[in-house]
Design a protein that fits this description.
- The structure is a single chain.
- This protein has one domain.
- 45% of the residues lie in helices and 17% in strands.
- The chain contains two helices and two strands.
- Helix 1 packs across helix 2.
- The N terminus is likely disordered.
């Protein structure tokens, strides 16, 4: 999995700029049951967002896994 980081420019009192690396991704650990539940919820959200079109269940599940792993 590729981790993305952003550079945030802040100004300190002396007026000089300072760069700080911040990761927008949270590192969260789930049990197997919690992970499956989060993926199931996200896959359902994807299904509903597509207008409840059938035939995309595996695609929704795989996309949901990637979303949950990245959150």
């Amino acid at each position: 999995m590729r981790q993305v980081s952003s550079v945030k420019r802040t100004t300190v009192k002396s007026g000089t700029a300072k760069n700080r690396i911040e990761s927008p991704l949270k590192q969260t650990t789930y049990s197997n049951e919690e992970f499956a539940q989060k993926v199931q919820e996200k896959a359902y959200q994807l299904y509903v967002a597509r207008g409840c079109a059938n035939g995309y269940d595996v695609e929704d599940w795989l996309i949901a896994e990637q979303i949950v792993k990245g959150s």
